[in-house]
Structure to design on (651 residues):
């Protein structure tokens, strides 16, 4: 049951296909690809929030599974704020997370492993991390077992990509 | 008089209705708070050293490590006594194993939340700060009780089943008054000593219960202890029973019914606001050194702070994650490393249908759920709470949780689920404290100071260990001890 992949992820590559192939292709597409993302380079060290952030695409425009994304994000929002400029809660604010270096949100104390991970959050790394945060990066401090349903995960990563 | 009347009312109704005495339990104790923004310090403020550690003076009189109920109570006491106090909290929120957090369009308790008027320390806080109480009577008045037997659901005939289970609980705790004649001082006599190696399961085995009754009694004690019955100490459960006046009505009320209407964070915030401690969030501590009259605390990012006294209010299971110089006692270290046994899941489950007041149980061979019950219900659906022993259960996967619920009730459609995974949180490493059998005798050592350091967490409290009340008990007392020492 392939989901419609949001076009902002993969311009010119919108044909629904087998999900694993799609994710792999996505990953390849994203390597070194700035695209619409403000600071997707691996050396990004600070939040990519512009002073006056333009509204990101809606979930519909981004081709996300709106119903699924809206449901899954409630779990994220237990511990994370998602609005631009909102305070970090138990977890860091997620606005602009796609394209941001891991552990770079100002004012949040991240675990050592995350600070030293060298990860840049893109669609691939977020998908892999969210599948099982503690498997992907042992000893990080996100007390969350993971979004184990691949469709849920794809929907939430799609949503995160609209937070810009 | 209020509780006497309540008891009479419930007894009366149980005689006529049969099912209304069966209030049950569900859990006690854990979680954390949220709402850091409401606390006196900004959540986003990076922690900066406040004073240079130079000369002979200390930066502070008291450093409290850990901002759960115990740490906030301790910091309140010392700061109100005029001592310069800083509270260091590892997470970006206060509350520890209580956590009042947004989920969808409501706020929910993801950890410890139940309180009761027979818990003297927390009830004093309720009075002091005029905190409104919420009541969820559905939890103790189920219309249906479904339990798993050989993996299949069995619908209990409550009017005949509950009295047998109730008698099982009473028999389990039959000697509570002899063993703990003063429940607030569990070591007042040595009467507990013959039982110190007994597990909860050992005690169940002595009762010779009929099979289905044993399934229920096992489910109830396993969720009270939040562990397999073979792991938790019998005396831990007996202590609760004794502290509640040795009866199942108050027991059931205490474990699944009353909580703070404005959330556990309302008490955390009240304590912080009442005192004047400086609060530093997102400040994990890595090392504590003592020399002479001073204690030096090093945070994970390398800041050092000094004080005359330090109160470690972090969970027992995390004590060993801090380096100490000189090292703390072998007993403290070993108990922390082997851990208390409280661990598992707590889930909020929303269903599409109004399923009424249901009560679900399974014995400790089934990990995902030992104990589930209706919290609220209505035309918009039912909000259930469930507790299980499997801390790694995939609590946030709708399909997994649906499958689990459908084992009990095949017709029910689950629409939402959430559980905070305490087992994965490095700052909790478990849920509410239940000591292993042999650990019970070690409590005095767990409370014994190490030079100018004292440990004060619900996990080493005396009376309501494992509960919010225990956190307030030991946090307040420890703060007062230092207030007097440094006066």
């Amino acid at each position: 049951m392939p989901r419609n992949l949001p076009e902002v992820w993969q311009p010119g590559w919108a044909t629904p296909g087998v999900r694993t192939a799609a994710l792999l292709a996505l990953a390849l597409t994203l390597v070194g690809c700035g695209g619409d993302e403000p600071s997707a380079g691996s050396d990004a060290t600070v939040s990519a929030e512009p002073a006056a952030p333009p509204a990101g695409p809606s979930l519909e425009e981004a081709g996300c599974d709106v119903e699924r994304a809206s449901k899954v994000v409630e779990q994220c929002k237990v511990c994370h704020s998602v609005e631009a400029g909102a305070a970090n809660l138990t977890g860091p604010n997620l606005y602009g997370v796609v394209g941001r270096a891991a552990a770079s949100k100002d004012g949040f104390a991240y675990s050592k492993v995350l600070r030293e991970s060298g990860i840049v959050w893109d669609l691939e790394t977020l998908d892999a991390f969210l599948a099982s945060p503690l498997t992907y990066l042992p000893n990080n401090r996100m007390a969350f077992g993971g979004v184990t349903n691949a469709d849920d995960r794809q929907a939430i990563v799609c949503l995160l990509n609209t937070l810009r | 008089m209020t509780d006497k009347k309540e008891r009479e009312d419930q007894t009366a109704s149980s005689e006529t209705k049969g099912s209304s005495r069966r209030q049950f339990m569900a859990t006690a104790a854990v979680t954390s708070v949220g709402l850091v923004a409401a606390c006196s310090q900004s959540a986003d403020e990076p922690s900066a050293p406040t004073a240079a550690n130079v000369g002979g003076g200390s930066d502070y009189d008291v450093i409290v490590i850990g901002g759960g109920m115990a740490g906030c109570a301790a910091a309140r006491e010392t700061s109100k006594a005029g001592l310069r106090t800083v509270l260091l909290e590892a997470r970006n929120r206060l509350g520890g194993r209580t956590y009042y957090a947004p989920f969808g369009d409501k706020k929910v308790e993801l950890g410890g939340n139940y309180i009761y008027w027979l818990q003297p320390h927390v009830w004093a806080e309720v009075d002091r700060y005029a905190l409104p109480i919420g009541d969820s009577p559905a939890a103790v008045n189920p219309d249906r009780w479904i339990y798993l037997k050989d993996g299949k659901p069995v619908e209990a005939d409550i009017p005949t089943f509950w009295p047998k289970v109730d008698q099982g609980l009473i028999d389990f705790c039959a000697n509570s008054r002899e063993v703990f004649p003063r429940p607030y001082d569990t070591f007042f006599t040595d009467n507990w000593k013959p039982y110190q190696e007994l597990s909860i399961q050992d005690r169940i085995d002595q009762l010779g219960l009929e099979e289905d009754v044993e399934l229920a009694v096992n489910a109830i004690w396993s969720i009270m202890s939040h562990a397999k019955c073979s792991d938790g100490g019998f005396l831990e459960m007996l202590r609760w029973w004794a502290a509640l006046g040795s009866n199942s009505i108050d027991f059931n009320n205490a474990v699944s019914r009353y909580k703070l209407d404005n959330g556990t964070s309302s008490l955390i915030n009240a304590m912080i606001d009442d005192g004047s401690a400086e609060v530093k969030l997102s400040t994990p501590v890595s090392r504590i050194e003592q020399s002479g009259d001073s204690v030096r605390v090093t945070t994970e990012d390398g800041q050092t702070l000094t004080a005359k006294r330090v109160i470690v209010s972090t969970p027992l299971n995390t004590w060993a994650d801090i380096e100490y110089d000189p090292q703390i006692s072998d007993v403290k270290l070993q108990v922390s490393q082997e851990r208390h046994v409280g661990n598992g899941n707590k889930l909020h489950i929303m269903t599409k249908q109004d399923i009424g007041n249901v009560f679900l149980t399974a014995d400790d061979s089934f990990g995902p759920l030992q104990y589930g019950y209706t919290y609220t219900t209505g035309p918009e659906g039912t909000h259930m709470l469930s507790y299980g022993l499997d801390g790694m259960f995939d609590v946030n996967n709708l399909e997994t949780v649906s499958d689990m619920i459908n084992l009990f009730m095949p017709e029910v459609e689950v629409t939402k689920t959430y559980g905070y995974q305490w087992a994965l949180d490095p700052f909790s490493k478990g849920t509410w404290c239940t000591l292993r059998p042999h650990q019970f005798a070690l409590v005095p050592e767990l409370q014994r100071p190490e030079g100018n350091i004292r440990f004060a967490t619900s996990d080493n409290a005396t009376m309501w260990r494992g509960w919010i009340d225990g956190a307030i008990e030991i946090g307040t007392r420890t703060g007062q001890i230092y207030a007097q020492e440094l006066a």
In short: Residues 1-55 of chain B have pLDDT under 50 and may be disordered. The radius of gyration of chain B is 22 Å. The first helix of chain B runs from residue 2 to 17.
